[in-house]
Design brief:
The structure holds two protein chains of two kinds. In chain A, helix 1 runs antiparallel to helix 5 (208-286) and helix 4 (145-160) packs across helix 5 (208-286). Chain A contains five helices and six strands; from the N terminus they run H-E-H-E-H-E-H-E-E-E-H. Chain A has helices spanning 3-59, 93-107, 119-127, 145-160, 208-286, and strands at 77-83, 111-117, 132-136, 166-176, 179-188, 203-205. Helices cover 61% and strands 15% of the residues of chain A. Chain A is of the alpha/beta class. In chain B, helix 1 runs antiparallel to helix 2 (103-122). The two termini of chain B are 24 Å apart. Chain B folds into two domains: 9-75, ATP Synthase, domain 1, CATH 2.60.15.10; 78-122, ATP synthase delta/epsilon subunit, C-terminal domain (Single alpha-helices involved in coiled-coils or other helix-helix interfaces), CATH 1.20.5. In chain B, strand 1 (9-16) and strand 2 (19-24) form a beta hairpin. Classes of the chains: A alpha/beta, B alpha+beta. Chain A binds chain B through residues 38-39, 42-43, 45-46, 49-50, 52-53, 56-57, 143-145, 153, 200, 202-206, 210-211, 214-215, 218, 221, and chain B through 1-3, 16-18, 21, 28-33, 55-57, 59-60, 66, 68, 70-71, 105.
Chain lengths: 287, 125
């Protein structure tokens, strides 16, 4: 077999192996995406209910005073909760979120302290010269609860201790399975849900002001969770897209290589036939 | 994570911020702050359910009650042995009080472990 043909066949074999891997990763992403979407819709339902209840409480609470609602603090240091994917192979997904964070840092007058969720995110953020002061493990696939608690508690504590005067979250906003966009949302001081007008007052236990205060941290936690899950869903869809494209490309490459191989084989057969014919001719002439 | 229980109930009893509160059908709309404690649900078909719930609120609507809690576990899912370990660990930590101890967190762990054990007991496990 000519050298060229052997090289082409080996190449096709390798591309075939890669295709198997990317196809498997595509299937895994699809399964993870489905699960993340189920979580997200459950979380959305929870935050929507909570928001409805909080709005009702606020409608009857009058003015409430709480550090989480104090929009007048001088802004010296800003916390940025940075959420990206904790694995690669999702196209430019992580780079886009980090890029958004960098832009945020450049446009903010105050010093920005970054709280990164996920080891990989933290690493990429450091490389992008973001000031990473705290690193959380990525929220785990199975049990989000405890991880979320730790993140929410830390965010609230650094705000309450005045280590930061504002907290934002840089995450990926999931739009559809083929589209998501990096985004920055303010977490603290909190933006409250719009208050319904003329809503009939239910019984409140305790009084609305105390109830509202008690609900604020639960509401903030819900918001953080929503952003984490939005990013998780966006990450899995980005990976699904990337792996789908990689599989398609591998298939196309295998097609091309197969054509080259056939052509090379045909050429070598033709050459051999010409050799034989020429040899036979030579023999015939000499006879 | 997500919805733990979705059922037709005749009545329920929750651990509110200031003690036990019972809700029957036709209860006036109400929003109530909850504590860590057992939640009891009497289902329409006569079955009883016990849940260990953590904080959050109860929203009683016209024909629906929504419990929005930080955590909820049904009695059969409670790992009694694990809860006992957690209880012991929390007690030890609170007794020794190492410098870096986050007291409110340790107290929360203690309350959660006690709650789990109590719910398991109430459910007759």
């Amino acid at each position: 077999m000519p050298e060229n043909l052997r090289v082409l066949r080996r190449k096709r074999e390798i591309v075939g192996e890669i295709r198997q891997i990317t196809r498997a990763m595509k299937l895994v992403s699809a399964a993870k995406l489905k699960r993340a979407m189920t979580w997200r819709s459950a979380a959305r339902q929870y935050t929507a209910e909570l928001e409805g209840a909080l709005a009702l409480v606020l409608a009857h609470a009058g003015e409430i005073e709480h550090p989480f609602l104090d929009h007048d603090r001088p802004e010296e240091r800003v916390g940025l909760l940075l959420v990206a994917g904790d694995k690669g192979l999702a196209g430019s997904f992580n780079a886009q979120v980090i890029g958004q964070a960098r832009e945020f840092v450049q446009n903010t007058g105050a010093r920005v302290l970054t709280f990164a969720v996920g080891t990989r995110t933290a690493e990429m953020a450091r490389r992008a010269r973001l000031n990473v002061v705290r690193e959380f493990p990525a929220i785990s696939e199975r049990e989000g609860g405890a991880d979320l608690d730790a993140i929410a508690r830390y965010v609230m504590r650094s705000y309450q201790r005045d280590e930061v005067q504002r907290v934002f979250c840089c995450y990926s906003r999931f739009i559809s399975r083929i589209s998501s966009t990096p985004d920055v949302r303010q977490l603290l001081p909190m933006q409250l849900p719009p208050v319904p007008e003329g809503a009939e007052a239910p019984i409140f236990e305790p009084a609305p002001a105390a109830l509202a205060t008690a609900m604020l941290s639960q509401y903030l936690e819900g918001q953080i969770f929503d952003l984490l899950l939005s990013t998780a869903v966006a990450e899995h869809s980005a990976r699904l897209l990337a792996m789908s494209a990689a599989t398609d490309n591998a298939e196309e490459m295998i097609g091309d290589l197969t054509r080259f191989i056939n052509r090379a084989r045909q050429a070598s057969i033709t050459n051999e036939l010409l050799d034989i014919a020429a040899g036979a001719d030579a023999l015939g002439q000499s006879a | 994570m997500g919805e733990t229980l979705n059922t037709m109930a005749r009545s329920l009893r929750v651990s509110a911020w200031d003690g036990q509160v019972g809700v029957l059908a036709g209860h006036a709309p109400m929003i109530e702050l909850l504590a860590i404690g057992p939640t009891f649900v009497a289902e329409a078909d006569g079955a009883h359910r016990w849940l260990a719930t953590v904080n959050g609120i109860m929203h009683v609507k016209r024909d629906e009650v929504v419990l929005l809690v930080r955590a909820a576990e049904e009695a059969p899912e409670i790992d009694v042995e694990r809860a006992q370990h957690a209880l012991q660990r929390a007690r030890e930590r609170l007794a020794v009080r190492p410098d870096e101890l986050d007291v409110s967190r340790a107290e929360l762990a203690l309350a959660r472990a006690l709650n789990r054990l109590r719910v398991a007991e109430l459910a007759g496990r």
